[in-house]
Amino acid sequence: MPRYLLLLHGDKDSEDGKMPSKDILEQMHAYNSEIVSAGALLGGEGLHATSKAARVSFPPPDPTNPTKPGSKSDITVTNGPWEYSMENPEGRSGESKRPVCGFWIIKAKDIDEAVWWVKKGPLAGTYVEVREIFECGDMPSMTDEMKELEENK
Predict the structure, then answer these.
(1) Angle at 109 between CA 104 and CA 115, to 5 degrees
(2) Are strands 100-107 and 3-9 parallel, antiparallel or unpaired?
(3) What is the DSSP string of 104-145?
(4) Taking the chain, what is the end-to-end CA distance rounded to the nearest angstrom?
(5) CA distance 70 to 89
(6) pLDDT tens, residue by residue, 31-62
(7) Is 16 helix (H, G, I), strand (E, B) or coil?
(8) Which of 35, 90, 115, 119 has an alpha carbon 20 to 30 Å from 41's alpha carbon atom?
(9) C-alpha angle with apex 101: 59 to 11, nearest 5 degrees?
(10) Could you give the C-alpha distances from 111 to 5, 104, 116, 117, 127, in angstroms and in order?
């Protein structure tokens, strides 16, 4: 069964480190318990604000050999917080302008079922990005040895 990553995008309160109310936490606990009872929840957590984060940026590949990563000495680390547009939550072409403040990983038969689970959530004033997770079978260039290592981790 496919797995999906559900990325919960935050708002000014979550980015300012404000914790949800007891009522919201109780609603979220009931929602998570429902997903667990259905056998669909594989994991999920809330995330601290970007003020406690770092962004690691990698250089482009070596132009003489596109399969070789760029130089490790050109990796940059940027400590948070980062600027986000809270008024315009989505930029051009749906580009996210809000930080991710939490996630779930669920099993669902297809993206429609994953979206169905998202719609049941006690959410307001935000959006959730639903992304299917690659499985070994989705990558034809993986060798049998690579697949075995991946499946046994």
Answers:
(1) 50
(2) antiparallel
(3) EEEE-SSHHHHHHHHHTS---S--EEEEEPP-GGG-TT--HH
(4) 18
(5) 32
(6) 999 999 999 999 999 999 999 999 999 888 87
(7) coil
(8) 90
(9) 110
(10) 11, 14, 8, 10, 16
